Amino acid sequence: NKYKIAVIPGDGIGKEVIEAALAVLDALASAGGSFVLDYEHFDWSSERFKTTGSYMPDSFLDVLQPKDAIFFGAVGDPTVPDHISLWSLLLPIRQRFQQYANVRPIRVLKGIKSPLADCKPGDLDWVIVRENSEGEYAGQGGRTHQELAIFSRHAIRRIFRFAFEVAEKRPRKLLTFVTKSNAQRSGMVLWDEVAYEVAKEYPHVTMDKMLVDAMTTRMVLRPESLDTIVATNLHADILSDLAAALAGSIGIAPTSNLDPTRRAPSMFEPVHGSAPDISGKGIANPIAAFWTAAEMLDWLGEKADAKLLMEAIESVCGRGILTKDLGGSANTAEVTDAVCTAIKES
Ligand code: NAI
Ligand code: MG
């Protein structure tokens, strides 16, 4: 099958890891993959902003709408305030396309050591579902320093339904919902209320509730007690960075911004940012971008190739070909070549 993909590498290591991921996707396609990707590249980035005054054209929705998916690197530049860069590129795409489900699978891959001492394979295997359209990142507020979080019944209900569907398809059928309804007494109380309402539609899924602060300790101390997790925009943002670190590095974690109705294209990106501290050195870990590519193929329906790509990634990690953030000494190109070779040999 043939798919139209918008490629937006963005800034910093976003450019490096997207280039690496395109090489891996090429290897997969030419090794008998059942898909063809028709790329269109966009230079939407901080560099474009500094020369033209905007990150992307006003017509970005029309430009992206006909695509089957968007493959995104990262945005952020030391010379541009982060709230400007994020709100000029990534957040408008997520929100205007109503990519309301941000899905962040994470697990300890073969060959990668978790910083948790007794973490056995399979102990940490989670899917974090993040509400991606409103909440604390609704973008409402003003220069008199209010920041308004928005929680609507409609948006809470749809993210819970989505999270239950994810949980239901996993062997353990366990959904933990994260809240802070003891301190945040309006929106978060509605969040809890809708959780129990929607739970009635999914009697085969076990649901439990955690306050976000206690959730951090449970993730560290009892990772095996968790499976699917649903949380607000802010809470899930923070918990998913913790999750990535517990699985070895922020450099491995993928994320999908999905419009489950499929009316708009969905967007796939690594969890990490542009990492200015290591950008330009060729040492960024490309695994997050590879795993992201696998998530994109899976969403497009190319499940066999997605699986093959994950197996190639794990075989390379299992052989100890790792970047510095994972305790190895390989650079981006070496990991990329190894994954391409593993694909060809599989
Ligand atoms: P970051 O994720 O860019 O970096 C955090 C730390 O992790 C750094 O020490 C970095 O070197 C390391 N790291 C990240 N990805 C890595 C990889 N693939 N391989 C090896 N090491 C990796 O987050 P930070 O430093 O908070 O933000 C830097 C810039 O990125 C900021 O401008 C921020 O706004 C932006 N950002 C953008 C995101 C996006 O586009 N989705 C997400 C997070 C941050
Ligand atoms: Mg984040």
List the topology elements.
Layout lengths: L1 E9 L2 H18 L5 E6 L4 H7 L7 H5 L4 E6 L7 H7 L1 H7 L4 E7 L17 E7 L3 E8 L3 E5 L2 H17 L4 E6 L7 H13 L6 E6 H10 L6 E4 L1 H14 L7 E5 L7 E5 L16 H14 L2 H16 L13 H14 L1
Parallel strand pairs: 1-2, 1-3, 3-12, 5-10, 8-9, 8-10
Antiparallel strand pairs: 4-5, 4-11, 6-7, 11-12
Catalytic activity: (R)-malate + NAD(+) = pyruvate + CO2 + NADH
Cofactor: Mg(2+); Mn(2+)
Family: Belongs to the isocitrate and isopropylmalate dehydrogenases family.
SSE order, one letter for each helix or strand: EHEHHEHHEEEEHEHEHEHEEHHH
CATH level-four homologous superfamily name of the largest domain: Isopropylmalate Dehydrogenase
Low-confidence stretches: none
Q: Report the top-level CATH class of the largest domain.
A: Alpha Beta
> In total, how many domains does the architecture comprise?
2
Tell me the radius of gyration: 20 Å
Account of the protein in words:
The protein is of the alpha/beta class. The protein has two domains: 1-99 and 278-346, 3-Layer(aba) Sandwich (Isopropylmalate Dehydrogenase), CATH 3.40.718.10; 114-247, Isopropylmalate Dehydrogenase, CATH 3.40.718.10. Helices cover 41% and strands 21% of the residues. It contains twelve helices and twelve strands. It has helices at residues 13-30, 46-52, 60-64, 82-88, 90-96, 153-169, 187-199, 212-221, 233-246, 287-300, 303-318, 332-345, and strands at residues 2-10, 36-41, 69-74, 101-107, 125-131, 135-142, 146-150, 174-179, 206-211, 228-231, 254-258, 266-270. A ten-stranded mixed β-sheet has the order 2-1-3-12-11-4-5-10-8-9, with helices on both faces. The chain starts with a strand and ends with a helix. 1,4-dihydronicotinamide adenine dinucleotide is lined by residues 13, 17, 74-76, 82, 86, 90, 250-251, 269, 272-278, 284-285, 288, 325. 1,4-dihydronicotinamide adenine dinucleotide binds at residues 13, 17, 74-76, 82, 86, 90, 250-251, 269, 272-278, 284-285, 288, 325.
